[in-house]
Amino acid sequence: MATAGRQQVILDTSVLINFLKIDRVDLLARHPSYEFLATEHVKDEITQHYPQQLARLDTARQNGDVQEIRVTDQNELNAFGQLASTGLGTGECSAIAVAANRNLPVAVDDKVAIKRAQRFHSGIVILNTESLMVSLIHENVLDVPAADAIKDDWEQNHRFRLPFASFANRV
Question: What predicted TM-score, i.e. pTM, was given to this entire model?
Answer without folding.
Answer: 0.92
